[in-house]
């Protein structure tokens, strides 16, 4: 109601001034007594009409929603009676041009940052926004004006839909504050937007209308606001790459350790074979001079060392001397060793002297069964 009264008062004062200028233009062309009479009547109108207008403005001052500057109707760009003839004034007087938003002290600001600019919506100093694809942001547009205790109607007439930007909803809220001793009212329109594409996008200019009782509407428009939209950060490739790297590293360490153990085992096996070979070579050299019984018992000891190295840990044997070759042969762990064990049994229990040729054949059989090759 207060907004309606305000615009009615503005329309009345503006129409009255336009008619007054038209009458003055006409009376300047009339030279007769009749024109003098009309001039007198015009003077009477001048005396009565301002008083009537002043009374109306005074009566409605307490209820108006906006504080209008006294010179807003004579601002640059308004109609001038000197440039309008009687007919055109009669046609345009019923629908005069409305004061601009700047003249009425209306400002519009888009976004959270920046300083309020002119009524066209220039938000100088706005910092470009940034978001990620899929983000939902709240984009405010605020219309502010100076008030004397009431509000006006502001109607949004456009949406924020644009390339890569989709408007999900719109809400509004009103508030009042005091700035520099003046009471300021504002309406904030909160646009709920979702980012659908990447790149340098632009939130479009928002348009608003303020209806007036004259049938015309005051148009407001904000500036478009740039926004940078980036693709979301995906940590899965880095996590997957790190996991693969760790697995490869562990596999490499395991392989290196396995190779090291294999080399150590091979070195130990070679060392044992070399030691056994040396003992067998010494035994071969004594085959011609040594007592056959002692020679065979010494060969049996070397064979027990071999069996202890191969089966001792699995069988729980504490020392080579505790190895039972007969039991291992019976269990099938020493395949082909039975003829050799018979030679050992004959040496222990049969006695008697054996030919060196026979002992040499026994030595060859033992070398073959233990897998020891004689150096050439």
Provide structural commentary.
The N and C termini lie far apart (124 Å). This protein is α+β, with helices and mostly antiparallel strands. It has eight helices and ten strands. The radius of gyration is 57 Å and the shape is rod-shaped. It folds into three domains: 2-92; 107-230, Immunoglobulin-like (Sandwich); 238-370, no CATH class. Helix 1 packs antiparallel against helix 2 (33-60), helix 4 packs antiparallel against helix 5 (292-315) and helix 5 runs parallel beside helix 8. It has a four-stranded antiparallel β-sheet with strand order 1-3-6-5, with no helix packed on it. The protein has a three-stranded mixed β-sheet with strand order 2-10-7, with no helix packed on it.
In short:
With 376 residues, this protein is an alpha+beta fold.
Please provide the count of β strands: 10
Oligomer: single chain
Helices and strands, in order, run as HHHEEEEEEEEEEHHHHH
Number of domains: 3
Cα-based radius of gyration, to the nearest Å: 57 Å
Average pLDDT works out at 73
Helix percent reads: 40-55%
What's the overall geometry? rod-shaped
Distance separating the two termini: 124 Å
Detail the poorly predicted runs: 1-7, 23-93, 113-127
Query: What percentage of the residues does DSSP assign to strands (E)?
Result: 15-25%
How can the largest sheet be summarized?
A: 4 strands, antiparallel
Derived structural class = alpha+beta
Q: Number of helical runs?
A: 8
Strand order of the largest sheet: 1-3-6-5
